[in-house]
UniProtKB/TrEMBL annotation:
Functional description taken from the UniProt entry: Catalyzes cis-trans isomerization of the C2-C3 double bond in maleate to yield fumarate.
Source species taxonomy: Bacteria, Bacillati, Actinomycetota, Actinomycetes, Micrococcales
Official protein name in the record: Maleate isomerase
Pfam families documented for this protein: Amdase (PF17645)
Additional observations: Reaction is initiated by nucleophilic attack of cysteine at the double bond, yielding a covalent succinylcysteine-like intermediate.
Subunit structure as annotated in this protein's UniProt entry: Homodimer.
Single Gene Ontology MF annotation: isomerase activity
List of catalytic residues: 95, 213
Gene3D superfamilies referenced in this protein's UniProt entry, alphabetically: 3.40.50.12500
The gene coding this protein: maiA
EC annotation from Swiss-Prot or TrEMBL: 5.2.1.1
Keyword flag Isomerase: yes
Organism: Arthrobacter liuii
Length: 272
């Protein structure tokens, strides 16, 4: 049976003024970025009137192991082509540790692979990655020493520590929650994060990375931890959001998610 020509689309739907399309590349088992980012951008839209829609491509990954992470990386270009079919305005590669598993400064190459794939598909767009966004955001706010929390097994956490330190930022302390299954990571309770943050060795710290993982929920705790500790609090999700807004040329105006996204100039505290 043939499909009538009148039912076929011959061109993509035109973009609407006052609205931006955000493309996401996420692990297949991710349940957090597609909840936290839309909520953050809902707050941005509420403050500015500009609307945002989200369009995702998924790459297979269930267990947070080096082997599965590297396999996911190999699918980045294909995912970029798929999500760019939606003619998105920006693409975010939302798997921090998959990029960091490739070695120092790997976000540079990963972002180029995705940008090249989107351009080759006829829909060029600026690209950020959660790994690159976290490092660049910490550098931008002048954070030279940080403490952080990860859900990873200790060897993966050490890999993240090494990656961040390779960018010139000292990690004073890192807590590993040692959860290997990515779906279980997405079920961790963010209300446990304030107590964990209090237990970090923070003397001399310029910022706290409350969640060095795009899958570990943290949004509900960011503002409370920042208010309590008196330090800028960054997460993989808030750093990614910050860079998406920058790529779109939009000033952050998000409430309740820390000073980074409030629109205020973030300056590290003298010490914890």
């Amino acid at each position: 049976m043939s499909i009538p020509a009148t039912t076929c689309e011959t061109a993509p739907e035109p973009k609407r003024p006052g609205s931006s399309r955000v493309g996401l590349i996420v692990p297949s088992s991710n349940t957090t970025m597609e909840t936290e980012l839309p909520e953050l951008f809902r707050r941005q839209a509420e403050a500015t009137g500009h609307k945002y829609t989200f369009h995702s491509a998924r790459a297979g990954m269930k267990k947070v192991t080096r082997e599965e992470l590297l396999a996911m990386v190999g699918k980045a270009a294909q995912c970029a082509e798929a999500v760019s079919d939606a003619d998105v305005d920006v693409i975010a590669y939302a798997c921090l540790v998959a990029v960091m598993a490739q070695g120092p400064e790997a976000h540079v190459g990963s972002e180029k692979v995705i940008a090249d794939a989107a351009e080759g598909n006829g829909h060029p767009a600026p690209v950020t990655s959660s790994a690159g966004a976290l490092v660049r955001t910490l550098q931008e706010i002048g954070a030279k020493k940080v403490a952080m929390i990860t859900p990873y097994m200790k060897p993966l956490t050490q890999m993240v520590v090494d990656y961040i330190e390779g960018s010139g930022i000292t990690v004073l302390d890192a807590i590993s929650l040692e959860v290997a299954d990515n779906l279980e990571v997405g079920c961790l309770d963010p209300q446990n994060l304030p107590a964990l943050a209090r237990s970090l060795q923070r003397e001399g710290a310029d910022a706290v990375v409350l969640s060095a993982c795009v899958q570990m929920p943290s949004l509900a705790a960011v503002q409370a931890v920042e208010d309590e500790l008196g330090l800028p609090v960054i997460t993989a999700a808030t750093a990614t959001t910050y860079e998406i807004l920058k790529a779109l040329g939009h000033k952050p105006a998000i409430t309740g998610a820390g000073s980074l996204l409030s629109g205020a100039r973030v300056r590290p505290a003298a010490n914890a």
